[in-house]
Amino acid sequence: MTRKQYTEEFKEQIFKECQEAGNVALIANRCDISSNNIHNWARKKTAAIYA
Fold first, then answer.
1. Cα–Cα distance measured from residue 51 to residue 47, given in angstroms and rounded to the nearest whole number
2. CA angle, 6 as apex, 11 and 40 as ends, to 5°?
3. 3-state SS assignment for residue 26
4. pLDDT per residue over 2-38, tens digit each?
5. Are 34 and 28 in contact (CB under 8 A)?
6. pTM more than 0.70
7. At what angle do helices 8-21 and 24-31 cross, to 10 degrees?
8. Alpha carbon distances (Å) from 39 to 1, 24, 48
9. DSSP tag of 22
10. Is 18 in contact with 29 (CB distance < 8 Å)?
11. What count of other Cβ atoms lies within 10 Å of the Cβ of residue 38?
């Protein structure tokens, strides 16, 4: 099984949609990705800002 790689632009679009919807799980299900992925991306993004 191969891992999917998502572009930074895609991740930014997902963040935007999650903020607008207020529901990560809803967006994750719609885009067929794990909500854990989105939370991990957000955690890494936050860590990079404060690093």
1. 6
2. 60
3. helix
4. 888 999 999 999 999 999 999 999 999 999 999 999 9
5. yes
6. yes
7. 130
8. 22, 8, 14
9. T
10. no
11. 20
User: What is the C-alpha R_g of the chain?
Assistant: 11
Tokens of 34: 């794990």
The CB-based long-range contact list for 28-33 (8 Å cut-off, 24+ gap) reads 33/4, 33/6
* Longest CA pairwise span in the chain (Å): 34
Residue whose tokens read 């990705």 = 33
**Does residue 21 contact residue 31 with C-beta atoms inside 8 Å?**
no
